[in-house]
Amino acid sequence: MRDLFSLAGKTALLTGASTGIGRHLAGVLTEAGARVALGARSVDKLEERVAELSDTGGQTVALPLDVRDPASIKHYFDAAEAAFGPADILVNNAGVEAGVKTYLTLEDSGWDDVLETNLKGLWLMSREFSRRTAAAGRTAGNIINISSILAGRQQKGVFPYAVSKAGVNQATKIMALEGAKLGIRVNALAPGYIYTNVSKALLDSDQADDVRRSIPQRRFGEFRDLDGPLLLLASDASAHMTGSVVVVDGGHSVSSL
Ligand SMILES: NC(=O)c1ccc[n+]([C@@H]2O[C@H](COP(=O)([O-])OP(=O)(O)OC[C@H]3O[C@@H](n4cnc5c(N)ncnc54)[C@H](OP(=O)(O)O)[C@@H]3O)[C@@H](O)[C@H]2O)c1
User: Is residue 255 part of a domain?
Assistant: First the structure.
């Protein structure tokens, strides 16, 4: 029972590991025993995190990654394999938002950046992971997509972001259906609001208190709220889960209309 959530002997790929939630999750995966390949564009920040984690005995590597660029993805997978061998787990965490924009005020570039990072990048990473899993003759793989409660609820000013996350939930379910024959499980973790670059426009605004009061638990999330749910999905404890969206939001998405 003690080892139910252990990741000992596993290799994990983690996108968007330079700041915010991804930076935190790198520590959670490492502490559970995984070797972790931290990917993002800001390699200096990844290297800082790798140095911190190696001080605590973690096996990690910092690798440049732009999830919008197929050549960068290939290079990232090659480098991660060279460091740790084939990956067992992929955490698709990289994500951006476009600032406070409605569908009327959003420019094409904002749409493209958000959809290419949050949705197309997640698909490209998942496809590469799954192809390599199959080509190596492996019979198991585990993909965790970081979604959001905005996948299923509405708010003004987050148009492309919410659309991208709705796509992430549906991508999760279809990849679960199609990946099962390869032994690949695909689940999503959908946090509510946690203070980071992605959420600070709202959480620093005058609306923040009203939003907090609308959450049944009356508080925003903290990084550590994701630890247990992440380990559930990343470990064999969730062996019979695929196609699930695990919501971690203090009840926000079931708040009263
Ligand atoms: N904070 C919240 O309230 C909240 C709630 C629900 C879901 N989420 C989701 O949580 C995930 C992490 O976001 P966060 O809140 O932690 O914000 P964050 O601190 O801004 O982190 C975003 C991460 O994504 C990386 N990234 C962005 N574009 C990338 C690209 N093209 N290629 C590779 N990496 C890229 C960034 O690194 P570089 O810039 O160095 O590349 C950074 O590490 C996102 O998917 C977000 O949608 C956040």
Answer: no
**Dihedral sign, Cα of residue 26, residue 27, residue 28, residue 30:** positive
In angstroms, what is the span from residue 59 Cα to ligand 1's centroid?
Answer: 22
Residue 138 has φ and ψ, to the nearest 5°, of -85, 150
pLDDT tens-digit series, residues 162-207: 999 999 999 999 999 999 999 999 999 999 999 999 999 899 999 9
Evaluate whether residue 6 is within a structural domain.
Answer: no
Domain of residue 123, CATH code: 3.40.50.720
pTM for the whole structure: 0.98
The residues lining ligand 1, judged by C-beta closer than 6 Å to any ligand atom, are: 15-22, 40-42, 65-68, 93-96, 117, 146, 148, 191, 193-194, 196-199
